[in-house]
Design brief:
The complex is a heterodimer of chains A (about 110) and B (about 110). With about 110 residues, chain A is mainly beta. Chain A is about 0% helix and about 50% strand. In chain A, strands 2, 4, 5, 6, 9, 10 and 11 form a 7-stranded mixed β-sheet that branches. In chain A, strands 1-3-8-7 form a 4-stranded antiparallel β-sheet, with no helix packed on it. Chain A is globular, with a radius of gyration of 13 Å. Chain A starts with a strand and ends with a strand. The model of chain A has no long low-confidence stretch (mean pLDDT about 95). By secondary structure, chain B is an all-beta fold. Chain B is about 0% helix and about 55% strand. In chain B, strands 2, 4, 5, 9, 10 and 11 form a 6-stranded mixed β-sheet that branches. Chain B has a 5-stranded antiparallel β-sheet with strand order 1-3-8-7-6, with no helix packed on it. The chains are: A mainly beta (about 110), B mainly beta (about 110). Chains A and B meet through β5 and β10 of A and β5 and β9 of B.
């Protein structure tokens, strides 16, 4: 099925551990992004990419790294997890960076940092 | 800085009722506004997108209106059904190349 695929769906980490949240889309979308959703905070943009080899910071980038080596994949890396990074993470993609394009969201990855 | 507010945070209605979900934003200079639906444990699904030059958009039983001058948008759901139970979020894009600013959402429960 076409769409945005996120793995894993659930993950528990200890403080200081590292991990990568995977995101892949098969719609040939140029634009990809990562959000986190926290109770009472709404969705906040972490990082985004307007094409392979191009990434930029969003509203809350600290503690996260991204890369975009292919059009299809946009992994989010936590180098040293902290309890404040406990959240639900969503990857979203769009045909292009233009605001006229509708975002397609993945199902989310729920991360708990102990 | 653009702020998006959705009140109330939760709403419970009986099946069959027509209902209106409200969204307000602080800066009337917007490029477009989107309404999303989020089911528990799932991602967001785009419902309607209204460009700044438009007054409303319709899809099935859903109708979204936009009044930039007052900083408001409403999502009208006709003849609500239990399957409409979900969280509804609105998001505003200030400019063509700007990022979306999301509201916190309204959790709707439609009782059979």
């Amino acid at each position: 099925n076409a769409g945005v695929t996120q793995t894993p769906k659930f993950q528990v980490l200890k403080t200081g551990q590292s991990m990568t949240l995977q995101c892949a889309q098969d719609m040939n979308h140029e634009y990809m992004s990562w959000y986190r959703q926290d109770p009472g905070m709404g969705l906040r943009l972490i990082h985004y990419s307007v094409g392979a080899g191009i990434t930029d910071q969003g509203e809350v980038p600290n503690g996260y790294n991204v890369s975009r080596s292919t059009t299809e994949d946009f992994p989010l890396r936590l180098l040293s997890a902290a309890p404040s990074q406990t959240s639900v993470y969503f990857c979203a993609s769009a045909l292009g960076p233009s605001g006229a394009n509708v975002l397609t969201f993945g199902a989310g990855s729920r991360l708990t940092v102990l | 800085k653009q702020e998006v507010t959705q009140i109330p945070a939760a709403l419970s209605v009986p099946e069959g009722e027509n209902l209106v979900l409200n969204c307000s934003f602080t800066d009337s200079a917007i490029y477009n506004l989107q309404w999303f639906r989020q089911d528990p444990g799932k991602g967001l699904t785009s419902l309607l997108l209204i460009q700044s030059s438009q007054r409303e958009q319709t899809s099935g039983r859903l109708n979204a209106s936009l009044d930039k001058s007052s900083g408001r948008s409403t999502l009208y759901i006709a003849a609500s059904q239990p399957g409409d139970s979900a969280t509804y979020l609105c998001a505003v894009r200030p400019g063509a190349n700007s990022k979306l600013t999301f509201g916190k959402g309204i959790t709707l429960s439609v009782r059979p």
